[in-house]
Amino acid sequence: MDDNLLQYIRRYIDISDAEFSLFRSYLTPLMLKKKETLLKNGEVCRARYFITSGCLRLYYIDQKGNEQIMHFGIENWWITNYDSLLNNIPSHLIIEAVEKTQVLELKETSLQELYQRIPKTERFFRIIMERTYIATQRRIEFMYSLSSEEILKSFIDANPEFVQRVPQYMLASYLGITPEYLSFLRKNP
Amino acid sequence: MDDNLLQYIRRYIDISDAEFSLFRSYLTPLMLKKKETLLKNGEVCRARYFITSGCLRLYYIDQKGNEQIMHFGIENWWITNYDSLLNNIPSHLIIEAVEKTQVLELKETSLQELYQRIPKTERFFRIIMERTYIATQRRIEFMYSLSSEEILKSFIDANPEFVQRVPQYMLASYLGITPEYLSFLRKNP
DNA sequence: GAAAAAAAATAAGATATCTTAAGAAATACG
DNA sequence: CGTATTTCTTAAGATATCTTATTTTTTTTC
After folding, report:
1. What is the pLDDT of residue B4?
2. CB-CB neighbors (< 8 A) of A83 in chain B
3. Looking at residue A3, what DSSP letter applies?
4. What pLDDT, in 10s, does the model give residues A142-165?
5. Strand C positions within 7 A of protein Cβ atoms
6. CA B73, B76, B82, B85 torsion: positive or negative?
7. Closest CA to D6 C1' — which residue?
8. B46: in domain
């Protein structure tokens, strides 16, 4: 688990073993059962979570009472509600385990301290943020230019193993279509 | 112009006048006429641009040959193609002036140097990236949960002055609808 | 200031996607 | 293991949005 994280960090910055130990000491492992939540509706988000195993989803309940999934998080991804975390506002987004999931919690207060003690972590989180943003941009472009059928097809092609892990109705929500229509699209190829 | 930039930076980090001068020396002012481009299809993006006046749009041409606008940039916003810039890949996104526009160009090579010379600039750009990401997240949530009619209405309500500045067909593209449908929606309130 | 070009409006018909409702299949649970 | 709950499928009818084509209005250009 720690090895994964270390490798992950070293993809982006040089960090000594001692520095990593310090970094690691700011992280708290949490184990979540399926359907347990990390962040509830109305709570202010106070931490980021690095997923070491399992799968989380970040979603909200819309006016009509439907769950709308913004994105999923899997192994080696950070997940949080940045808007709530950085602007100190209550979250209407919910972070919940899709399956049994292990995360490392990094409290935002700890992170600010970490930035002081190991300045290069600021670079690390800048890079993470850049990459997260780029992923989102690509996704928007995708959704803008493809029909639902094409979006579904290319998502399944790109993430065949992941598609097996989540219920189809969650996939439909993530892709912005109804489960019924997803079912229809799968049947009529 | 420089004052605007200085104020803007000081919203996020403490920076001395001397440091700001140094920062400023890495920026090159460019003046764009309407329809001039900062980034062409197929080019690798090498810089970020801080808009001091005017308006730019970032868009691509989809399979059907339609322009698809990803977003606009106005005064006091940074604009670039992060995917191309940071991954050194050719851009299929185009950055073009919607009206006469003045920008300050920050080459990526200069920025890397700046990170070394004034480490706190790393913090500044981390924060910019976070805020940019949050804006995008909010937008996705918006587009997921509202009908075209609601999206249009709330965009116009939130940005009445901006709506006057860009042609309607660009607004339609940005909001993900056809110009004809936008026209229809305006007529049938 | 007139001609050309670009942008916006209108409207009819086409299509993608949603809604509703019911039954079938799969999974979780005691 | 059998019942309860959740998830998935199917299909018909409804609706939002697009397409195409034409006309009108506005803006640009010489």
Report:
1. 82
2. 134, 137-138
3. H
4. 888 888 999 999 999 999 989 989
5. 7-12, 16-21
6. positive
7. A167
8. yes
* Strand A55-61 with A47-53, pairing: unpaired
As beta bridge partners, residue A79 has A49
Asked if A8 and A52 count as a contact pair (C-beta separation under 8 A), the reply is: no
Q: What is the CATH number of the domain that holds B59?
A: 2.60.120.10
Q: What is the DSSP string of B115-152?
A: HHHSTHHHHHHHHHHHHHHHHHHHHHHHHHHS-HHHHH
pLDDT digits (tens, 9 = 90+) for A85-108: 999 999 999 999 999 899 999 999
Chain B residues bordering chain A (beta-carbon distance below 8 Å): 60, 62-63, 68, 70, 82-83, 86-87, 115, 119, 122-123, 125-126, 129-130, 132-134, 136-138, 140-141, 144-145, 176
Look at residue A177 and tell me if it is in a domain: no
Compute the half-sphere exposure of residue A21: CA atoms within 13 Å on the CB side of its CA: 3
Enter the tokens of residue B20.
Answer: 């700001």
Residue B159 lies in a domain: no
Is the residue at A55 inside a domain?
yes
Q: Provide the domain count of chain A.
A: 1
Domain hosting residue A14, numbered range? 2-119
